[in-house]
Amino acid sequence: MNRVSAAQAAALLETGDEIALLDVREIMRFGRGHPLLATNLPLSRLEMSICDVVPRRATPILLIDGGDGRSELAAERLARVGYLDISIIDDGAPAWEAAGLGLIPEIEVPTKGFGAFARINGKPNFISPNELKAALESDEDWIVLDSRPKPEYTAGNIPGSIDAPGADVLRWFDDLVPDPNTKVCVNCMSATRGILGGLSLMAAGVPNEVRVLHHGTRGWLLDGHELERGAARFPAPVSRNAQASARKRAESIAGRAKLPRIDRATLNAWRADDTRTTYLFDVRTPDEFQAGHLPGARNAPDGSIIMSPDRYFGTLNARTVLADDDTVRATVTALWLAQMGWGEVAIYTGGIDGGGLESGPATDTSPPIPQANTIRPDAIRSALDSGEISVIDVGPSQDFVEAHIDVATWCLRPDLAEHVQNSGKPVVLTSRDGVAAHYAADDIRRALDIELQVLEGGIDAWRNADLPLASGEENMLSPRDDFFLASSERPGDQRQNIVDYLDWETGLLDDIERAGPVPYRNLIWA
CA angle, 97 as apex, 75 and 28 as ends, to 5°? Predict the structure, then answer.
C-alpha cells in the first residue's frame, strides 16, 4: 500500500479519473468533520459493503481516518478482498484540515450543499409555515405533497399532505393534481428534498403554481404548529394518462439538460468494460424491483440515492445508469445526480419487461464470509446460565438496542480486541444474522491468535428458538459512534439544536466553496 499527504490526495481527486475516497471512521466521528467527497465506509461494516460501493477491484482507493491508524487496518482488509490500488492519507482528517482543505460536519453533505446550489440557481418559490397554514385554512385550493419516503412521512407530516417521494412527485402529478388551478406545496424535513421536488415540477413545466415549504416540517414545528402522525395517504397505482404525461415531461427535461439516454446494447457494452466502473440502479419501489429487474441492478427507491449517495456508490467519476419502467423516475434522478457532479450519468431507455430479468433481492456481491467455530442457541443458553461464557454483540448498535440476548454486552467491532483480552472467560460473538460476528471473529484470530465462537444464526436464530431477548441501551462497552443523531435527537435544547442545524444548512454552500472546488453543475436553469 502507498502513503500520500493530504495535498497529494486532494490533487488525485481533481484529475477526473476514477477514484474512491473512503472515510473508515464510524458515522458519528465522520459527522463531526470530513472531506466533502468522502464516502463513509466504517471499519465495522467495511467488507460487507465494499463490493457494492466500489465494485471494480482495480479502482484507486484513498483511505482516511482520524489519525488513529484505522486506515492501516482497512487497507489490510481491502487487500484480502482483492483490491489492488490502496493509498493511506498520512495522519488522516487532522492532516487534511491542517493542509487548509476543509472538513465539513454533518452527513449527506454533498446533497445538502447541492440543495443550496439549487435554491440559488433554480430559484424556487418558498412559502413560510405560517403562510401555508393560513392558505390551507382558507377557501383557496391547495395540495401539499411530501417528498420523503413513507417512514419519515408517517412519523410526522403536514396535516392533510400526501406522500410522493423522490421522482414520484412528477410521475403521479396529473393523478394527484388534476386541476391546473390547484396550488401545490412541496415539503420535506428541512430543505433539500422539498427544493428538488418543487424544482422537478417546475422543470417539467406543470401548469400549477408550485411552492416549497421553507424549512419543511422542522420549520412547521418551530412556528408552533402540530404535525399529523401515522398518516397513510399514498398515491394509488399511476393511471395511463398520468404516466404518459409524466413521460413526455421527463423526455423534455432530458433533452434540455442533455442527459445521455442509452439502450440495452450500450448498457451491456459499458458493463463489459473492465477499465471503467458502471453502476446500475433501478429506482422503482422495492416491490417492483423484486418482481423483476435488470441483471446486476441494485434498488435505489424513493430518491434515496440522491439524499444518501454514499450508501450506493463510492467511486468518483464513474458511470451511473438509472433504470425504471417508463424513464420518469430515472430521468428526474439522473437530472439531480448529473448536476451534483457524480460522474457520467445516463438514463436507461429499454424498459423493464420481456425476458432476461432477475427477481427477488439484488445479487449479493459481498466476499465469502470468514469461517468460525459456531455454537447453537440452546448450547449457549445453558453456558450463560452457568456463567461459563460471556456474549458480545458486534452488530449495529441499533440492532442491539432493539433486541439482544438478555445478558449480552455490545461493542464496536474495531474495539473488540480490548474487551476480549479483558473478559476473563470464553467469549461468544453474535450479531443480528451472525455475519458481522463472523468477520469480528476473524479480526480476533488475526490480531490475537484466539479462536472465538460465533452464535450460529445470530439473534435471528435465538429469536426463532423462543429464547429470551432484552432491549435498550444497557451493557454497552463502546460509545454508539455507529449511530448518527439527527439535530432533533441530540442532547440539549431540542429547539435550539434544530435552529442551529437550519442555520448550518443555510450557510453550507459557503462552507463548501471555502473547502475547495465545488462539484455542482447547472444543466437546466437559465
Answer: 65
Task: Indicate the length of the chain as a whole number.
Answer: 526
What element of type H or E holds 244?
Answer: helix 240-257
**CA end-to-end span of the chain:** 47
What are the residue ranges in the chain where pLDDT is below 70? none
Amino acid at 478: S
| C-alpha angle 8-9-14 in degrees, rounded to nearest 5 | 95
Q: Are 338 and 519 in contact (CB under 8 A)?
A: no
| Environment class of 414 (CB within 10 Å of its CB; exposed 0-12, middle 13-18, buried 19+) | buried
Q: Which amino acid is at 192?
A: T
The whole-number pLDDT of residue 43 equals: 96
Cell of 53: 460501493
Rounded to the nearest 5°, which phi and psi values hold at 163? -80, 125
DSSP-derived 3-state class of residue 213: strand
Summarize pLDDT for 470-493 with one digit per residue, the tens: 999 999 999 999 999 988 888 899
The whole model's pTM is what?
A: 0.95
Condensed to tens digits (0 to 9), the pLDDT of residues 356-400 reads: 899 999 999 999 999 999 999 999 888 888 888 999 999 999 999
Dihedrals phi, psi of 322, to nearest 5 degrees:
-110, 130
Report pLDDT for 41. Answer: 97
Percentages helix, strand, coil for the chain (3-state, rounded to 5) are 40, 15, 40
CB 15 within 8 A of CB 385: no
State the pLDDT at residue 517.
85
DSSP 290-356: HH-B-TT-EE--TTHHHH-GGGT--EET-EEEEE-SSSHHHHHHHHHHHHHT-SEEEEE-S-S-SSS
